[in-house]
Write a structure and sequence with these properties.
- The protein is mostly helical.
- It contains 15 helices and 4 strands.
C-alpha cells in the first residue's frame, strides 16, 4: 500500500511539473507586421504630419533591428553607420530571446513617439501577459534587454534636433511676392514643418546633399515654361472632369492621395478625414513584399528598417528644397488668374510646392525595396482598401513610385517639374542609401546580388 501511495505521489509531481514547464517564447513576422500596423493606426489617429510620421517609423524599426542584428551575424549593426549612433549594448543574460526583445524595443520606441500611448500600451500588456504565462524568466530577461536597447536609441534620438525645432518660429508668408507659397483652401493652414531640414539625417551628410535643380523661373507670361506647366495642371484637371470620377487618372490620384488631414467644410461645420501618410503607404508596401517573399522575422525587420531610413532622409531632403524655393501652388494661381471656381481633385497640402514630397519619398523607398527584392517584383497593393479604394497592381517598386509621382499631376497639386525632379531626387537619395548603408555583410550581399 505504501509503495502504491509513493507511485501516486510521484505521478502527481510529474504531472504538475509537466504542466508548469516553461515554453520558449516566439515572435513571428506577422507579430511584427501587426505591431507596425498598430503604429500606423496611431499615426492616423493622432494626425501626425508626413515628416513626423517618418520619424516614428524610423526610430521604432531601428530599435528592433539593432536588437536582432546582435544575434544574426549576417546582418550588421547600424552603429557607426547612421549619423551619431554609438555602439548598441550587448545582451549579458543568456536567457534573452532576441525576437521578443526586438518587439519590445519597437513598441517602447513607438510609445515614446506618439500621443495616444495607451493604444500601444494595451497591445504590449496583452503580449506581456501571454509571454509571462509561457515563460516568465525568458520574458524578464528579454524585456530588460529590449528596454535597454530602446533607451540607447532614445538617447541617440534626443540629439536629432527635433525638440529644438518645436520651439522655432512659424513660417512667414511673403504675400508681396507673387511666386511665393501662400496657404491654400479650405483650411488655409500654416506651412507645416518649416524647420524640418534642421533635423539630423541618418545617412545623408546634409539636408542639401541631393538638392534638385531649381524649378522653372516664375512667370505668368503666356509661352513661358512656368506658365505652360501651370496650364497643364489646369487642363489635365478639366479633362479629368469631362471623363468622370471613375477615370484612370482620378483613380490614380485618389489611390496615392495619402493626405493625413483632409479638411471638409459643410456650412458652419468643419471636420477632418484622417488618412495614411505617404511614408505609411510605403510601409504598407513593405508588409506586402515581405509576406509575398515569406520573409522570416529578421528579413522583415530589415526591410522595414532600411525603407523607413530612406523615407526619413527623403523627407529631410525634400523639405530642405520646399522651404528654399518656396514656390506657390497651382491652385492659388489658377484661382487668382484663370478660374476662381477651379479646384484640384486632391486637397492641396499645407506647404510649398517644389519638390513633390510623395515623388521624393516614393523614389527613395522604391530604390531600397528594389535592392532587397529585385526590379521585377510584381505585387498587388491593397494598402488603400481601408479607405474604400480598390487594389492596384504593379510590376515593380519603381513602377509604383512612378505612378505615385504622376498622381500629383492628376491630383492637381503639383507642376510637372516638381514631380519629375522630385522623383529623380528621391531615386538618387535611395541609391545613395543602397550604396552606402551596408546592413548585410559582404558574403550575404554577394549571395543576393542577383535580386
Amino acid at each position: 500500500m505504501f509503495k502504491n501511495f509513493s507511485v501516486l505521489i510521484f505521478s502527481v509531481c510529474v504531472f504538475i511539473s509537466c504542466n508548469t514547464e516553461q515554453k520558449p517564447l516566439s515572435v513571428t513576422p506577422d507579430d511584427y507586421n501587426n505591431a507596425v500596423d498598430k503604429v500606423t493606426e496611431v499615426i492616423i489617429h493622432d494626425i501626425f504630419s508626413p515628416p513626423v510620421a517618418s520619424r516614428i517609423y524610423a526610430y521604432s524599426n531601428i530599435a528592433a533591428y539593432e536588437v536582432l542584428a546582435q544575434n544574426h551575424p549576417e546582418y550588421n549593426s547600424l552603429a557607426g553607420k547612421l549619423n551619431g549612433l554609438g555602439e548598441t549594448p550587448k545582451a549579458e543574460n543568456p536567457a534573452v530571446n532576441y525576437d521578443v526583445a526586438a518587439l519590445i524595443a519597437q513598441m517602447e520606441m513607438a510609445k515614446s513617439l506618439i500621443f495616444s500611448e495607451d493604444r500601444i500600451t494595451e497591445v504590449r500588456d496583452s503580449l506581456y501577459k501571454t509571454w509571462e504565462n509561457q515563460n516568465a524568466d525568458e520574458l524578464a530577461a528579454s524585456k530588460a534587454y529590449g528596454l535597454q536597447v530602446a533607451d540607447h536609441i532614445k538617447s541617440w534620438m534626443d540629439g536629432d534636433n527635433y525638440k529644438q525645432t518645436r520651439t522655432m518660429p512659424k513660417f512667414s508668408v511673403n504675400a508681396d511676392n507673387p511666386s511665393r507659397w501662400q496657404p491654400t483652401p479650405p483650411a488655409y493652414m500654416d506651412g507645416i514643418e518649416p524647420h524640418w531640414m534642421k533635423i539630423r539625417p541618418f545617412v545623408l551628410d546634409s539636408a542639401s546633399q541631393f538638392k534638385p535643380v531649381p524649378p522653372p523661373a516664375f512667370s505668368m507670361e503666356e509661352g513661358s515654361e512656368f506658365h505652360k506647366q501651370l496650364m497643364e495642371v489646369y487642363n489635365v484637371r478639366n479633362e479629368m472632369t469631362a471623363k468622370g470620377d471613375d477615370s484612370e487618372e482620378a483613380q490614380i490620384a485618389k489611390f496615392w492621395d495619402c493626405n493625413p488631414y483632409v479638411s471638409t467644410h459643410k456650412g458652419h461645420l468643419m471636420f477632418a478625414t484622417k488618412k495614411i501618410t505617404p511614408g505609411g503607404h510605403w510601409i504598407g508596401i513593405v508588409k506586402i513584399a515581405t509576406k509575398k517573399n515569406n520573409a522570416d522575422l529578421m528579413e522583415t525587420v530589415y526591410a522595414y528598417t532600411k525603407t523607413s531610413i530612406a523615407l526619413f532622409d527623403g523627407f529631410i531632403s525634400c523639405w530642405d528644397e520646399k522651404y528654399r524655393s518656396n514656390l506657390i501652388r497651382p491652385e492659388t494661381l489658377i484661382n487668382q488668374y484663370i478660374d476662381d471656381s477651379w479646384a484640384p481633385v486632391l486637397q492641396t497640402p499645407p506647404f510649398p510646392e517644389y519638390s513633390s514630397g510623395h515623388s521624393v519619398v516614393s523614389g527613395a523607398a522604391s530604390e531600397v525595396l528594389t535592392e532587397i527584392y529585385g526590379d521585377n517584383f510584381q505585387f498587388d497593393d491593397d494598402t488603400e482598401t481601408a479607405y474604400g479604394l480598390p487594389v492596384r497592381s504593379f510590376t515593380s517598386f519603381r513602377a509604383a513610385s512612378s505612378e505615385a509621382a504622376l498622381s500629383r499631376l492628376y491630383g492637381g497639386i503639383h507642376y510637372r517639374a516638381a514631380i519629375e525632379e522630385g522623383l529623380k531626387q528621391g531615386r538618387q537619395l535611395g541609391q545613395h542609401i543602397v550604396n552606402n548603408l551596408q546592413m548585410k555583410n559582404n558574403a550575404t550581399a554577394l549571395s543576393h546580388s542577383g535580386n
